[in-house]
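TASK: fixed-backbone design
INPUT:
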């Protein structure tokens, strides 16, 4: 991405919604509650739903690991947990493999730091440099010449020379062969501090794929692994783990013993924080003078709509604002959308609707709808409409197939179970009304359960 795009991302500030693709994130980031505690020296587990901003938070935690001149303050190690291959409870051998994997990644990351910071290493004492060599040789798995070869080829001369020394040096072991990982890390930390680094952060994100497939296995694996925190309490090593929210109950049950060693946080955003986040992104829109939601759209109900649709999820707020920004930028000259225009735009961009039949959960945008607000028969109608998303479903189908559960629609008084439409029209209308009250951000102007006059109801479903 060129410098201009980084400074003024334009519509991309509302359309990509992937923190890893936003080099300008720091300019529009609004820290959630407890962010300063998350960024503290201790280990932290941060729970958040999809779209809650876990990756944004992790990227900003990373920014705390460099100083104002861009020089690293600590070693950042990217690691991803690998659950056990079966449903068995992870044992000591599995935990040891994970620790070995982390030490290997630490060694690889340290080698990369050596390559980049080679000129600064001339000032550190020989014993500290010797520990760097020793740690990488001890913990880097496989043939180190082969592992480090590509890095040597890509490094500047000073860095390549340091890496070649690591490959070829012959050193006596600083610790006995069976020394534990806590002792190995403690020796490394002595060297890192002389290199100007005050610790190691092990960072994890992106466990959704594993967690969705086997949440109990992932929770058991994390529980077993977090038991190793006791090894590193005094070493300067900390975990910063970003995890799906639905792992929280299982993990809290599993790691009660470890809770005093790791702080748990739920990623929550207040409406005020989400509004500030959106408005900071508006300031990145090219050269236009957008500084507030009112500059974008003058409709008085916009904020209430965003709160009801977006819930506490930044992604859903930004998703709802994206078509408004696009419309604003396409106007000549750009001007705030009035209420009538906003309602037309939002009708073409309704919130995402999801129904999880297994969990009996209904979500509209970022809002989880309580089933207490949906009567049982209304839920049956909703489920039928969901199974026929984007299709116009007549009242007869909704009554006979969804409400009564019949396999077919009787069409005449001679058919078994037939009732004239006047007997059930009002009943279906009442249930659709109840569904709109529970689901629609603005029940008087529905965008999800849309009436197609003379034909039936269509549940609008976005990808």
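OUTPUT:
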């Amino acid at each position: 991405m060129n410098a201009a795009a980084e400074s003024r991302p334009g519509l991309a500030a509302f359309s990509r919604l992937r923190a890893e693709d936003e080099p300008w994130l720091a300019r529009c980031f609004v820290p959630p509650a407890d962010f300063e505690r998350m960024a503290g020296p201790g280990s932290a587990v941060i729970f958040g739903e999809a779209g809650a901003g876990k990756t944004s938070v992790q990227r900003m935690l990373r920014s705390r690991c460099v100083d104002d001149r861009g020089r690293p303050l600590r070693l950042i190690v990217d690691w991803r947990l690998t659950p056990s291959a079966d449903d068995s409870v992870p044992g000591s051998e599995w935990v040891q493999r994970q620790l070995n994997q982390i030490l290997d990644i630490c060694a690889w990351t340290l080698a990369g730091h050596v390559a980049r910071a080679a000129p600064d290493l001339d000032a550190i004492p020989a014993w500290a440099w010797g520990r760097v060599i020793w740690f990488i040789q001890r913990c880097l798995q496989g043939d180190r010449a082969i592992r480090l070869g590509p890095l040597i080829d890509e490094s500047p001369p000073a860095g390549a020379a340091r890496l070649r020394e690591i490959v070829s040096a012959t050193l006596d072991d600083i610790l006995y062969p069976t020394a534990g990982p806590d002792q190995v890390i403690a020796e490394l930390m002595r060297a890192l501090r002389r290199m100007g680094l005050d610790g190691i952060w092990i960072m994890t994100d992106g466990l959704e794929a594993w967690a969705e497939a086997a949440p109990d296995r992932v929770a058991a694996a994390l529980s077993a692994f977090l038991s190793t925190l006791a090894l590193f309490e005094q070493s300067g090593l900390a975990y910063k783990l970003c995890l799906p929210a639905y792992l929280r109950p299982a993990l809290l049950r599993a790691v009660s013993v470890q809770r005093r060693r790791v702080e748990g946080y739920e990623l929550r955003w207040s409406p005020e924080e989400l509004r500030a986040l959106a408005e900071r992104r508006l300031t990145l829109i090219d050269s236009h003078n957008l500084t507030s939601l009112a500059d974008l759209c003058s409709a008085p109900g916009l904020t209430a709509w965003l709160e009801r649709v977006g819930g506490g999820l930044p992604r859903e707020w930004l998703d709802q604002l994206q078509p408004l920004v696009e419309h604003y930028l396409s106007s000549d000259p750009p001007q705030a959308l009035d209420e009538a225009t906003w309602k037309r735009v939002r009708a073409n961009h309704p919130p995402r609707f999801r129904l999880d039949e297994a969990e009996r959960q209904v979500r509209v945008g970022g809002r989880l709808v309580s089933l207490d607000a949906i009567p049982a028969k209304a839920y049956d109608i909703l489920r039928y409409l969901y199974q026929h998303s984007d299709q116009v479903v007549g009242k007869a189908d909704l009554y006979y197939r969804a409400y009564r559960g019949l396999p077919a629609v009787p069409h005449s008084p001679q058919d078994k179970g037939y009732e004239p439409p006047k007997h059930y029209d009002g009943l279906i209308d009442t249930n659709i009304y109840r569904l709109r009250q529970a689901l629609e951000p603005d029940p008087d102007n529905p965008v999800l359960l849309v009436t197609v006059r003379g034909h039936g109801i269509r549940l609008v479903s976005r990808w």
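COMMENT: The two ends are 28 Å apart (CA to CA).
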